[in-house]
Design brief:
358 residues, alpha/beta, 31% helix, globular
Length: 358
């Protein structure tokens, strides 16, 4: 008999089966129920997870007192309603990205979870990946120097969505990583894009974010690329990092490369930039599945009362950036200011007890 929290999964389309697989395999918990209005999906998942109760209606599933928590993997338009229903039923909630359709919806869910003493977590999976964790440690150590900018590309052919544009679909991953690494919200957001396939739903977007201290970040997203690209470059004053998530093992390469401007010079003829070309190297990274680490963290928060790394505030910050990008799109790429709200940095000590490989 497996003890521990009973986790139900609502939404069995693209991502839900991955959540179900992880919760069924993690020690110390059990897959308590499966929910989807599509009977075909339920039957298929029933073959993979025999004996797990199946429901077409979320309300009926929430009546099951044996279910302690709900993982929601539905289209974003349903996130707020389903998460609210689950919280009102006193269930802990893990909701996939993006957290909700508006920051106001996010705020209501955060308040509801706080009042009821429930764990509310958002599925920013890459924050739990070993490469991103290592990049955070390298930045914190000062080895890169001061961060100048971050450039990210997340491109592929499809999957086309009908209710959200490519920025809302793909950029949450990059935004969550960038906000985590820089530890601050952007001051302004610019976004440009085009809808080539479905009128009114942009399939190509470029987002630019300015941050305090002169730093900025850019994110390119597309559903129209012939090849899949998942790459991020972090440029510091001393060194640079290229993070390529497509690579099976060599995901991070550190470049001992930089350019320096002379501090003073007497004439234009004496002015010369100083270029430093050092070695590049690949740090060793223990292999682990980020989704498994995230699911384990959700369980740890339920049982131990820890604050989630990707809690409601983190999810709301990403949605605030997406809202600003949508407004900028409507205003032909104009800069949209984001009000600065004081936030408490998440303690990196949360990772201290995590195994390097799960």
């Amino acid at each position: 008999m497996i003890s521990g929290p009973s986790i139900a999964v609502a939404g069995l389309g693209y991502w839900g089966p991955n959540l179900a697989r992880n919760f069924s395999q993690l020690p110390g918990c059990r897959l308590g129920a499966l929910c989807d209005p599509d009977t075909g999906r339920l039957e298929k998942m029933g073959v993979q997870h025999p004996g797990v109760p199946r429901f077409q209606d979320l309300e009926r599933m929430l009546e099951d007192s044996r279910v302690d928590a709900i993982a929601i993997a539905t289209p974003v338009k349903h996130h707020y309603r389903l998460a609210r229903q689950a919280l009102l039923a006193d269930k802990h909630v893990l909701v996939e990205k993006p957290f909700a359709a508006t920051s106001a919806e996010c705020s209501e869910l955060i308040g509801l979870a706080m009042r009821r003493g429930l764990v509310l977590m958002v599925g920013h999976t890459f924050l739990y990946s070993a490469p991103v964790r290592m990049i955070g440690e390298i930045i914190a150590s000062g080895d890169l120097g001061e961060i100048r900018y971050i450039n990210s590309q997340r491109l592929n052919l499809g999957l086309f969505q009908q209710d959200i544009n490519v920025a809302w679909d793909l950029a949450p991953h990059d935004i969550s990583i960038i906000l985590h690494l820089l530890g601050k919200m952007p001051l302004t957001v610019n976004c440009q894009g085009n809808a080539h396939i479905t009128p009114g739903i942009e399939d190509v977007t470029n987002i630019s974010m300015t941050f305090p201290d002169g730093r900025f970040a850019t994110i390119q997203n597309s559903w129209l690329e012939p090849r899949k690209v998942r790459q991020m470059t972090i440029v510091g004053t001393r060194k640079m990092i290229v993070y390529n998530d497509i690579e099976p093992r060599e995901k991070i390469r550190i470049y001992d490369t930089r350019v320096e401007r002379p501090p003073h010079y007497d004439s234009f003829g004496e002015f010369q930039y100083s270029y430093h070309y050092g070695d590049s190297y690949l740090p060793h990274i223990e292999q682990s599945e980020p989704l498994r680490c995230m699911c384990q963290h959700f369980l740890d928060c339920i049982e131990g009362g820890a604050e989630p790394l990707s809690g409601g505030d983190s999810g709301r910050d990403v949605v605030r950036v997406l809202e600003a990008s949508s407004k900028s799109l409507r205003e032909n790429g104009c800069a949209v200011a984001i009000p600065q709200v004081a936030s408490v940095p998440f303690p990196e000590s949360v990772f201290a007890s995590w195994p390097q490989a799960v």
